[in-house]
Amino acid sequence: MTELSPSVPTPGIPQHIRETFRLALPVMLARCGLVIMITVDTVMTGRAGSDQLAYYGIGYAPQITMLTIGIGLLVGTVVLSAQAVGAGRPELAGRIWRLGLLAAFVLGSAYGVALLFGEPMLLLMEQTPEMARAGGGVLFMWAIGMPGVLMYVATSSFLEGVSRPVPGMIVTLGANIVDIFLNWAMIYGHLGFPAMGAEGAVLSTSITRWLMFGALLFYVMRMEGHERFGVSLPLRGHYGQMRKLLLLGLPLALSIGFESSAFTAATTFAGWLGKASLAAYQVAINVNAVVFMLAIGISTATAVRVANAVGRGDAVAVRRAGWVGTLLVVPTMLIATVFILAMPEAIAAAYTDDALVIAIAVPLFAVTGWMVIVDGAQAVLLGAVRGAADITVPTVIYGVAFWALGVPLAYSFGFPMEAGVIGLVWGLFLSLIVAMLLLAWRFHVLSRRVIAPL
After folding, report:
1. Can you tell me the distance from the alpha carbon of 297 to that of 144, in angstroms, rounded to the nearest whole number?
2. What does the pLDDT profile of the chain (454 residues) look like in tens digits?
3. Which of 101, 104, 300, 435 is most buried as measured by Cβ atoms within 10 A of its Cβ?
4. Parent domain of 58
């Protein structure tokens, strides 16, 4: 990136703060809506019994790894759309979205087929036959919604890239009402449905995910100014954008895959410790995930702001956008930390009435309460480097942080050092610290180099 005067004046720091929050707030709420859906599933499943909560947790782990890798692959949709808008070529954004939809459908369908073999998958992860059988049924239900949720992600990413995140927020929050109703019917056996427990919770979510995609697709095709973004223009001559989409998305998918698979490995380890430990781990990680969505909102806004600056050729704005986002996330996460540390028993009791699960979960919040700050900071820093289309170094950073360090530490703390499930969480916490520091270094170096739009 050159230091030439951009066609648009470089925004000052106050403007960066305002614009970051303007974009971040609806994305925060939209992402929170997705995790609230999982939280509702977790809480309502927990009320059906701690066994059902454990089945939900072991079935949740493999699919969330697949889902987050898919989300990483589709990151190119938001980055390339934002770069196109920043470069004054908004008509490319709609074509990028449609190529993203194609990638999402293909990958989601492949995931769905893989999840049909959930029971043998869990047996390979050395779960008990009972856990593998029940978890396999849960994974079958996740398979149904995989194409729908990834196409929803591609569509919401496009809208975020063109700075229209509010529709995604409205759809996601509204979907929770549908999910709660379907959960009530399918988990507990109302309105003629059998009591399906964990499987019912996941089936209701899969149905809701398809409805979310349908609603957002309808909006995009009817939204004001859709012609300007080229959502209906022919793709002929633009299939080369798919190469850019994958060039950016594949390394980021691998990066995110390193992180999510490390959490999945810890879930597997928790399953080795027994149903109560697994259920407690699921509670603690779900709380972390809810809070993490606040950071994802700021991360996405930061990525868009950085990508816009890259498209304009504004080096100063790139640096400001990245560091402003990072500074904004810390006090946001600190508020959540205070809440988690102040009422761990009440939070655990909201998920389950099993005294043993609560007793195991409460000490975990002393770690996850602080972990959310570091997790949020590394997420925003990843957003900054992905907005600059950095596609290699973050992958190496995540591989080192989560698999060279995090997973071995979690196993060592949990088993040889006999710390149990809290040792697993400590291992993940330390890996997040390493990721945060290395990403901060990377953005510092990257933002002082020439950055060309993809």
Report:
1. 27
2. 433 334 455 666 677 667 666 666 676 677 667 777 888 888 899 888 888 988 888 888 788 778 878 887 887 788 788 777 777 777 777 788 888 899 999 999 999 999 999 899 888 888 888 888 998 999 999 999 999 999 999 999 888 888 788 888 899 889 999 999 999 999 999 999 999 999 999 999 999 999 999 999 999 988 877 777 767 767 666 667 777 777 777 887 888 788 888 988 898 899 899 888 988 998 898 888 778 877 877 887 888 788 778 777 777 778 888 898 888 899 889 999 999 999 999 999 988 888 999 999 999 999 999 999 999 999 999 988 877 777 788 889 999 999 999 999 999 999 999 999 999 999 999 999 999 999 999 998 888 775 555 5
3. 300
4. 13-446
Q: Which residues of 348-381 are buried (b: 16+ CB within 10 A; e: fewer)?
A: bbebbebeebbebbbebbebbbbbbbbbbbbbbb
Is 453 within a domain? no
Q: In this structure, is residue 454 part of a structural domain?
A: no
Query: How far is the C-alpha of 275 from the C-alpha of 263, rounded, in Å?
Result: 17
The structure tokens listed for 51 are 């066994």
Number of domains in the chain: 1
Tokens of residue 232, six digits = 């209906």
Query: Would you say residue 3 lies in a domain?
Result: no
pTM (two decimals):
0.73
DSSP assignment of 213-233: HHHHHHHHHHSTTTTTTTTTS
Q: Using alpha carbons, select from 315, 311, 362, 314 the residue that is nearest to residue 341.
A: 362
Q: Are 148 and 212 in contact (CB under 8 A)?
A: yes
- Distance in angstroms (rounded) separating the CA atoms of residues 184 and 338: 32
Q: Is residue 4 part of a domain?
A: no
Nearest to 150 by CA among 115, 181, 125: 115
Residue 219: exposure state from Cβ atoms within 10 A (0-12, 13-18, ≥19) = middle
- 3-state percent helix, strand, coil for the chain, nearest multiple of 5: 80, 0, 20
Tokens of 310: 């890259």
Handedness of CA 414, 418, 420, 422 (dihedral sign): negative
